[in-house]
Amino acid sequence: MAAHLEQALAKLKTTGVRMTPQRYAILSYLLDSMTHPTADDIYKSLESKFPNMSVATVYNNLKVFIESGLVRELTYGDNSSRFDADMTDHYHAVCEVCGKISDFEYPPLSDIESTAARQTGFQVGGYRLEIYGVCPDCSVTTKH
């Protein structure tokens, strides 16, 4: 993940975003995390290192990262956005029991935007795909 962090820092530099210790910590946490954390998760993980940091500070910095194209916000209708620093083309499987989100890739979908544009005449700005079900951990605990 160190290479990803270096790339992210270089990208921020070109967009004129000043790197503060808090921003560095938030970005590092996101790049290291595979759990698609909420802003609260990030805040709770970093509050011991940054006692003066608030949840609002975390949100504001996440907004900067989103605007800079380093982080994507995942909203699934449960009123708590999750954040993902993996900007590669990938999709998400969401557990309907615990809310866990797992990444997966499906290369045949890579031309979906051009196909949609061709068939509809739309200028496609993006798309998302989520799969819903029960994760392995929850399926073990819900079986009787």
From TrEMBL:
Alphabetical list of InterPro entries matching this protein: FUR, Fur_C, WH-like_DNA-bd_sf, WH_DNA-bd_sf
PANTHER family: PEROXIDE-RESPONSIVE REPRESSOR PERR, ZINC UPTAKE REGULATION PROTEIN
Family of this protein: Belongs to the Fur family.
GO biological process, one term: regulation of secondary metabolite biosynthetic process
Cofactors that this protein relies on: Zn(2+)
Species the sequence originates in: Paenibacillus roseopurpureus
Cofactor info, note text: Binds 1 zinc ion per subunit.
GO-annotated molecular function: DNA-binding transcription factor activity; transcription cis-regulatory region binding; zinc ion binding
Protein name (database record): Peroxide-responsive transcriptional repressor PerR
Entry GO CC: cytoplasm
Localization annotation: Cytoplasm
